């Protein structure tokens, strides 16, 4: 691990950074960055030649599931499908999700995110009673424990079809979320009374001054249009707080004119969209003994063209919804670039991993400008193709101007949770 003095200014000479982060139009610009007293400074210092090494601000991962993470060894998806994931998680949650179990897996996940260079995370938290009274106190404790390393937000999660009366049966959970300073969330399915359920949901959130976050149309069924229902309702009721929608896979299967018309409504409603390409690639279009034809990624280029705030995030990690992953946002960048053809486009795609998710969640914006906290990642790569060609396992994570230990936690730390006989 590279290190430097901390008792005076240090200047990293000849580094490559996205031009948009320092007020330039260049896709990548060469500049110097001086670190002094944990911040980026304007003065010179002891020079370290960086040979055009790339620097990115630390990441924001705006859609994760820390409460589900790493249960795969005891609860693997039996067939790799979405229904298989739902049923497997439900069974494991009922059998195993004690405060101790959830805390240990959350802690492990945060260690991974920290070592990879993430500074802020929004996590969804399964909140169907009685799990809400188990997991939310754990989240609050973890948020406090990690406050000086990773800023945490929590968003509750239930299926819109899991309660008979959203307005009545979700109210106690909404109170828990409000007391924790969280975000009210829900998975939307194409149920007959979805609009009424959404009205009750927005009422709960509005009464508690909560932002909202939805899992939307995580299917390749072209008839699923819950995204459009949400956007229409936001406009109808004049909702002014932030609304985030994730997945939106069915857009990729719809008639193009219909999909684009829906995006016009989404843009008008001002929704934030987060695409989860790795999880969608794993679950969508999976059929036994058949090669998948469709990727499941949503229409990010078309969203960008309409001014919609588009981001990418990790989603699930080593659980039945996604068997892999390590909360490494660089991996998300690499895979999303390939899956969604972010390269060779006019989309300012680095913002979708840095500035856009911070804006959607209300986190501090990324910055490499003078006065900003010196929280950034140094890569040996000098340009995008070098960055994405390798996993960059030797990256240097700088927090408050000091390189941190990037040793990843050993999976053996979780062995006692996976084998009930241990």
CATH homologous superfamily designation of the largest domain: Metal-dependent hydrolases
Name the CATH architecture of the largest domain: Alpha-Beta Barrel
The shape, in one word, is globular
Order of helices and strands: EEEEEHHEHEHHEHEHEHEHHEHHEHEEH
Quote the beta fraction: 15-25%
Helical stretch count?
Answer: 14
Structural class: alpha/beta
GO molecular function, one term: metal ion binding
Protein name: Cytosine deaminase
Domain Amidohydrolase: 198-394
Keywords: Hydrolase, Metal-binding
What would a concise description of this structure say?
By secondary structure, the chain is α/β, with parallel strands linked by helices. 34% of the residues lie in helices and 20% in strands. Strands 3-2-1-4-13-14-15 form a 7-stranded mixed sheet, with no helix packed on it. A 5-stranded parallel sheet has the order 8-9-10-11-12, with helices on both faces. Strands 5-6-7 form a 3-stranded parallel sheet, with helices on both faces.
């Amino acid at each position: 691990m590279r290190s430097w003095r901390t008792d005076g200014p240090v200047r990293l000479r000849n580094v490559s950074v996205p031009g948009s982060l320092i007020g330039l139009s260049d896709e990548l610009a060469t500049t110097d960055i001086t670190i002094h007293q944990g911040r980026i400074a304007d003065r010179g210092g002891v020079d370290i030649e960086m040979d055009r090494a790339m620097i990115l601000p630390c990441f924001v991962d705006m859609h994760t599931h820390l409460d589900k993470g790493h249960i795969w060894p005891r609860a693997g998806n039996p067939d790799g499908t979405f229904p298989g994931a739902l049923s497997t998680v439900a069974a494991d949650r009922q059998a195993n999700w004690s405060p101790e179990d959830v805390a240990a897996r959350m802690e492990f996940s945060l260690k991974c995110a920290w070592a990879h260079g993430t500074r802020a995370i929004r996590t969804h938290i399964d909140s169907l009673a009685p799990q809400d009274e188990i997991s939310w106190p754990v989240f609050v404790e973890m948020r406090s424990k990690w406050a000086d390393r990773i800023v945490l937000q929590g968003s509750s999660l239930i299926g819109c079809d899991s309660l008979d009366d959203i307005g009545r049966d979700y109210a106690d959970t909404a109170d828990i979320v409000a007391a924790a300073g969280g975000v009210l969330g829900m998975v939307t399915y194409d149920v007959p009374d979805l609009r009424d359920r959404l009205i009750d949901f927005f009422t709960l959130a509005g009464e508690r001054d909560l932002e909202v976050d939805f899992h939307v149309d995580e299917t390749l069924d072209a008839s699923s249009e819950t995204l459009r229902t949400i956007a229409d309702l936001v406009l109808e009721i004049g909702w002014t707080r932030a609304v985030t929608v994730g997945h939106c896979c069915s857009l990729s299967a719809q008639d193009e004119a219909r999909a684009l018309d829906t995006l016009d409504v989404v843009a008008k409603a001002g929704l934030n969209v987060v695409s989860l390409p790795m999880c969608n690639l794993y679950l969508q279009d999976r059929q036994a003994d058949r090669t998948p034809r469709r990727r499941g990624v949503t229409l990010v280029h078309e969203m960008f063209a309409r001014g919609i705030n588009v981001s990418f995030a990790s989603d699930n990690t080593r659980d039945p919804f996604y068997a892999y992953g390590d909360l490494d946002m660089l991996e998300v960048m690499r895979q999303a670039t390939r899956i969604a053809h972010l390269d060779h486009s006019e989309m300012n795609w680095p913002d979708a991993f840095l500035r856009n998710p911070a804006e959607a969640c209300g986190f501090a914006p990324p910055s490499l400008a003078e006065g900003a906290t010196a929280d950034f990642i140094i890569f040996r790569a000098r340009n995008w193709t070098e960055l994405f060609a390798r996993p960059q396992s030797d990256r240097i994570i700088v927090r408050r101007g000091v390189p941190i230990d990037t040793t990843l936690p050993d999976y053996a730390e979780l062995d006692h949770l996976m084998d009930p006989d241990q």
